Amino acid sequence: MDVNKRYSSDELMPLFKNKLPNRNRSDFIKLVNWLNLRGNEEEFEALSKFGLIPGTDSILVYPEPQVVSGKYNLEFFVHGIRHMHRDVLVRCRDIKEGSRLLPLLDVQNPVDKNAVALRCEDEPLLIGYVPVFYAGDIRRILGDPSLAIEAQIKVVRNNEDAPVQLRLLCQFAAAVPHGFRAFDATMHKPIFEEAA
């Protein structure tokens, strides 16, 4: 596909359809559980979760955060666990569903100026990062002390039997100021303005 061309289809295009596993796969239910799905979602809804699984095509599909009635809500997998201290993998086994993770604004991160690191509530061990594609929004919210105080990151699922990139599924929830727009950054702008 040429990123400088516009494509449209009434169905999910093969490029994206290939990211959805066959429902007859022996591990389909396991995958569905890891992603916190029911298993009967429509293709576009399923793609928003299955698209987060890295594949051989180097394309990652991620859902736009929900902003409803002044509340920002999204689910994401903790990134970078494999690159943290060796004790992190052991610590991840003990993290319970419903546990809070505390965000740290990594203000001097050389790779991502919006980086948001995550640590366990009860110890100062960094376990990973908010995905780069959500970090800008989360950093804007956490940069406002009146919003940051109520913002929460909770573990939705701890997938002990999953690959490390699908280990900790978290939910970020926070109030946002009036007029806040999710993905209001250059990296999320459409290539074709008319697509907006």
Short description:
The chain is an alpha+beta fold and 196 residues long. Helix content is 21%, strand content 20%. It folds into two domains: 8-63, no CATH class; 64-195, 2-Layer Sandwich (Alpha-Beta Plaits), CATH 3.30.70.2330.
| pLDDT averaged residue by residue | 89
Number of domains: 2
* Biggest sheet overview: 7 strands, antiparallel
**Shape call:** globular
Percentage beta strand = 15-25%
Which structural class best describes the helix and strand composition? alpha+beta
Describe the protein.
The structure is a single chain. This protein is α+β, with helices and mostly antiparallel strands and 196 residues long. The chain has two domains: 8-63, no CATH class; 64-195, Alpha-Beta Plaits. Helices cover 21% and strands 20% of the residues. It is built from six helices and seven strands; from the N terminus they run αααββαβββααββ. The chain has helices at 14-17, 28-34, 43-50, 87-94, 132-142, 145-148; strands at 66-68, 71-77, 100-105, 116-120, 126-129, 152-158, 168-175. A seven-stranded antiparallel beta sheet has the order 1-2-7-6-3-4-5.
